[in-house]
Amino acid sequence: MHAPDRAPLEPRPARVILTLSLAATVGLGIGRFAYALVLPDMRDSLDWSYSAAGFMNTINAVGYLAGALMASRLIQRVGWSAAIRGGTLACLAALAVCALTGNFIALSLARLVLGLGAAAGFVAGGALAATIAQSHPERANFLLSLFYAGPGVGILASGLIAPFTLQHFGPGSWWIVWWALTLLSAAMTIPLFLVRIESKARFSEAGHGTFALPPILIYLAGYFLFGAGYIAYMTFMIAYVRDAGGGAAAQAAFWSLIGVSAFVTPWVWRGVLALDRGGLATAIILGTNALGASLPMLGHSTAWLATSAVVFGVAFFAVVGSTTAFVRFNYPPQVWPTAIAAMTISFGVGQTLGPIVVGAITDALGSLSYALNVSAALLALGAVAALCQRKVRPKGSVS
C-alpha cells in the first residue's frame, strides 16, 4: 500500500484557535451578553429601574475598557497563557457571584470583574490567534474567523438555556440561570487548560510610527456611536420581546438567531471588508446594523423580530472587523497597536454610556420602544459618520 506523502492540512492551528475562542465565549458571549436574558426577571425580582438594569452593563463595559487598556502590560508581565486562562477564571468566579447574591453592589462588582476578565481573555486570545493565523497565510482569514465566532457560541448556548430555565422554575429563578451558565462556562474553560497555549510570540508595544487623531476623529465618533447603540439593543431587546408577549421559545429563538447569524459574518462581508475606501465598509455594515435595530419599530410580529435578530446579528460582529481592516489599509504596521487602542477607547466609552443613558430615557418616558428607537438612531448616525471618513495617508504609509 502506498502511504501518503504528507498528512492533510494540519488541524492543530484550527484546534488551538477554537480553544482560544472559548475565552471569548465565556467572557463575552455568556459573561456580557447573557445578562440580557435574565435582566427582565432580575429587574422584577430585585425591584430595579431600567437605569439600574442598564448600569449593570455599564459597569461591565467599564471593566472591559480598563482591561483592554491594561492588556498589553498584563501579557508582557505574565505571558499569553496566564492572561487568557486567568482572565477566563476571573469571569467564571464572577458568574458564580451573580448566582450567589441579589445585592446590587456585589452584583456590580461581579459585572466589573467580568469585564476585566473578558478583556484579558479576548485581547490576549485574539492577538495570539492572529499570530497563529499569520503563520498560515493561505488560510489566515478562515483561522482568525474561528476565534471571532466565540461570542456567537456563547450567545447561542445561553439563548437555548436561560429562557427555558426561567420558564421551568418560574419568577425569581434568575439565580438558577446564573448557576447553569456558570457550570456551562466551567465546562468550556477546561479545554483552555488541556491544550498547550504557545507563548513564543512576543507582545510588543506600539512602534514609533506617526499617528494623529484629527484625521480620523469622525471615524472614531462613528465607532463611539456604534458602541453606545449596539449595547443598548443587546441589553434591552429580550425585555422588549417578553413585554410584547414572547414566551421562553420566542426569547430563545430570537437570541439564538443573533448567535447563529454571527457565524456567517466572514462570508457575508468578505467583499465589503476588502473595500479600501475610507470608512465606506464600516458605514455599510453599521447601516445594516441600524436597519436590524429599527425593524422592531414596524411591529411585534414573529417575522419582524426574527428578521431584526438576523439582520442585526449578521452585522454587529462585523463592525469590529471593519475597523481592523480600516487600520490595516490606512496605517503602516508599526502604528496598528496605537490606532487599534484609539478605536478600543472610543468604542469602550460608547458602550459604557449606552446602557445607563438608554435605561434612563426608558424610565423617563415609560416604554422600551424609546430605547430601541435611540439604539437604531445611534447606529444610523454612526454609519453616517463613518461614511464621511476619507482615506488616511499618514507619513510612512506604504499604501
What's the topology here?
Blueprint lengths: L11 H19 L4 H12 L3 H29 L1 H21 L3 H31 L5 H9 L1 H20 L4 H21 L22 H27 L4 H16 L1 H4 L1 H4 L6 H15 L7 H29 L5 H30 L2 H20 L12
Helix pairs in contact: 1-4, 1-5, 1-6, 1-7, 1-8, 2-9, 3-4, 3-5, 3-15, 4-5, 4-8, 5-6, 7-8, 7-10, 9-14, 9-15, 9-16, 10-14, 13-14, 13-16, 14-15, 15-16
What can you tell me about this protein's structure?
With 399 residues, the protein is mostly helical. It has two domains: 177 residues, Growth Hormone, Chain: A (Up-down Bundle), CATH 1.20.1250; 193 residues, Growth Hormone, Chain: A. It is built from 16 helices and no strands. The longest helix is centred in the N-terminal third of the chain and has 31 residues. The chain is globular, with a radius of gyration of 20 Å.
Q: How many structural domains in the coordinates?
A: 2
Contiguous helical run count: 16
**How many angstroms separate the termini?**
52 Å
* Helix-strand category: mainly alpha
Mean pLDDT: 87
Low-confidence stretches: 1-11
Going by CATH, the architecture of the largest domain would be: Up-down Bundle
Instruction: Give the percentage of residues in beta strands.
Output: under 5%
In quaternary terms, these chains amount to single chain
Note the main sheet: none
Per CATH, the superfamily of the largest domain is MFS general substrate transporter like domains
CATH top level of the largest domain?
Answer: Mainly Alpha
CATH topology grouping of the largest domain: Growth Hormone, Chain: A
Helix and strand element order: HHHHHHHHHHHHHHHH
Overall geometry comes to globular
E-strand count: 0
- What is the rounded Rg? 20 Å
Helix content: over 70%
